[in-house]
Amino acid sequence: MSRVIPTAIRSAIPCLVLGPNPPSLAMNSQIPQEIVNAIVDNLSCKAVDRTSLLACTLVSQSFSGPARRHLFSTISIRWKQNKSVEAQVRQLLSMISSRSDLRFLVRSLLIEDLGHNRSNPSVARAMDDTSDLFNLLQALTGVHSPLRALYLYCYSTSTNLYTSWQDIGVQTRSALMSIFPQLTFLRLREVREVPFTILKDMPLMETLELCQVSLEGEDEKSTLCKLGRVDTIDSLRRVTSLRVDGGLSKLLEYSTAAGLDFPKMKLFRTLVSDSEDIHAVWNLTQKFDSMNSLEMKLYTDCSYMSHSPVDLGRLSHLQSLCIRLCPLRASDNEALPHAFNLLYPPTRPTSLSTLKIVLSSPYILSSAEDFLPEQIGSSWAVLHPEKLLDVHPTLTSVEVEVDLSQSAVKWTHAPNVRPPSKAQVLSSLTKRLQKSIFGSEDPISSSSSFEKPMNIITFSLKAPGCLND
Fold first, then answer.
1. Are 134 and 171 in contact (CB under 8 A)?
2. Nearest CA to 294 among 343, 247, 250?
3. Boundary residue ending a domain (44, 71, 98)
4. H or E element that contains 385
5. Nearest 5 degrees, angle CA 388-CA 321-CA 359?
6. Residue 310: inside a domain
7. In Å, how far are 211, 259, 356 from 237, measured between CA atoms?
8. Which of 34, 209, 409, 430 meets the CB 3.0–4.6 Å disulfide criterion with 187?
């Protein structure tokens, strides 16, 4: 979010002539440092102003320091067509070697292993010891290092293969293990056979995200024998946000054996694809006495939710629930309402205040309306506010969002006719949802007999890029 620049600061901006002849130090010495900092902070809020931040480093010393703090706060190492991973790592190491203060500016590190091709050994990988990444990690490790966030994506787009933890270079693995204790945020994505023991030394961790990560022991026969039970319990006691997309059952098994209870957990996000996953969700959430927000992404036809074990009434602190439905085929839409079974019937009234239902589609549509056929049935009536408020009396907001932003929409319209606008598509989808939920496209006029409020439910749309504004 961009900040509003006060008049005093706006009047100082013309001094920043970001051209071939930057203003002299004398010209800038009269600008208070707090105003300079505000100017640079405002530029950093806008991704398009990265060039301006670079130019600020040439203006004067007063501008250079704040600009460099923003420029180097996040470092990304990812495969690029015109620059190998090796070249990027070497360049960063060279910069840190020549300007030792740079290592004290890096707060976030993103590593994407997208250039690996296992059929072509000459293509370097970010995670190979040959890339010198371990040297960079070691340079960013230490008591005084401000590095707190690490994003590690290991999926190989060239082969559609996941990376095993053992495929990562020995020195790189060691460097990663050394850097984990100083992190407050860690996102591991598409890494297989990750030893559960990596979690044993994360005393500062607040946000942990395991996306398509399979957890295992260092060897299957001694999975938990090698687990430092006390260290691990102390390790994750600060975690307030946990995301697990895949491998939830293993996490449940290992965390139970290790005595992990995540005492400060507030937000839990997970992906559910079968009945085993939904049982794991329920069993794991029982450990989160302090959890107040739950987000679940449900794949396939959701029929496995017809007898959901989740009892929201037993999650006494839960205030926010988000259910994201992701049917893999258009035919799955009919079974989507099975997911709403977890809303009914709780053993006791819940403390839910906000409920969000997101419908997303990854398949090809001939029109946005195809995602919700005109006859979508009355099974969505379970979302009627009157019924919801009977079992969730503290609800103040229900949002139904149709997310087509990732859909491949092939429009079948007449030549020279523009696609509909986002407002037109939202209006069409809203009418169909209202008819299914309320039995009428105009619920307000038909709600005179209802004692409880109807306006707590809203509808929204994330449209594909081909729609007009």
1. yes
2. 343
3. 71
4. helix 385-391
5. 85
6. yes
7. 21, 11, 29
8. 209
φ/ψ of residue 185, rounded to 5? -140, 130
Tell me the HSE value of 457 on the side-chain side, using a 13 A CA sphere.
21
DSSP E strands: which ranges in 104-216?
A: 108-112, 149-153, 163-164, 185-189, 191-192, 194-195, 207-211, 215-216
Q: Number of helices (H) and strands (E) in the chain: give both, helices first.
A: 13, 16
Residue burial 402-438, b: 16+ Cβ < 10 Å; e: rest: bbbeebebeeeeeeeeebbebeebbebbbbbbbbbbb
d(CA 141, CA 115): 25
- How many Cβ atoms are within 10 Å of 36's Cβ, its own excluded? 24
One-letter amino acid at 36 equals: V
What's the token pair of residue 20? 């071939």
Contact yes or no for 277/271 (Cβ under 8 A)? yes
Task: Let me know if residue 116 belongs to a domain.
Answer: no
Residue 178 three-state SS: helix
Q: Is residue 114 part of a domain?
A: no
Q: How far apart are CA 332 and CA 373, in angstroms?
A: 12
Task: Calculate the alpha carbon distances from 122 to 20, 82, 88, 115, 360 in Å.
Answer: 41, 16, 16, 11, 40
Cα separation, 149 vs 185, whole angstroms: 5
Number of domains in the chain: 2
Which structural domain, as residue segments, surrounds residue 17? 1-71
Q: Which residues of the chain are modeled with pLDDT < 50?
A: 1-29, 121-123, 219-232, 448-450
Q: Residue 206: its pLDDT value, please?
A: 95
Query: What residues form DSSP beta bridges with 210?
Result: 188, 244
Is 403 strand, coil or helix? strand
The predicted pLDDT at position 268 comes to: 95
Q: Where are the beta strands (DSSP E) in 292-426?
A: 293-299, 320-326, 354-360, 397-403
Question: Does residue 249 form part of some domain?
Answer: no
The CA-based dihedral angle spanning residues 247, 253, 255, 258, taken in that order and rounded to the nearest 10 degrees = -150
Q: Structure pTM?
A: 0.80
Burial of 280 (C-beta count, 10 Å sphere; 0-12/13-18/19+): buried
pLDDT, residue 225, reads 40
Given 71, 98, 121, the domain boundary residue is 71
